[in-house]
Design goal:
90 residues, 4 helices, 0% strand, elongated
């Protein structure tokens, strides 16, 4: 059991000390980070905006084609709405 190894007798630091240690290690990691140059950021932003614009154009073209393929043939031959009695004959 745990009483033989003495593991429960190990004293942990209090919560304030552990939180402070976490913030200290987080600050040390933030000092290690490097930021990209503004020129590189703008270049990557331009690439992202171009890809989004291309997807927008492709999706709008697909929407227009599908709309013309499915919606217009259904609506061109109908002059007035069909009632349920006309449809089922009751």
């Amino acid at each position: 059991m745990a009483t033989e190894s003495g593991a429960e007798n190990v004293k942990r630091p209090n919560i304030i000390f552990r939180i402070g240690r976490w913030f200290k290690s987080a600050a040390m990691e933030l000092r290690k980070t490097t930021w990209p140059e503004p020129k590189a950021v703008l270049k990557k932003l331009g690439i992202v905006l171009m890809v989004v614009a291309m997807f927008f154009v492709v999706l709008m073209a697909m929407d227009l084609l599908l709309q013309n393929a499915f919606y217009k043939p259904l609506t061109t031959g109908i002059r007035e709405p069909v009632t349920p009695t006309e449809l089922f004959g009751r």
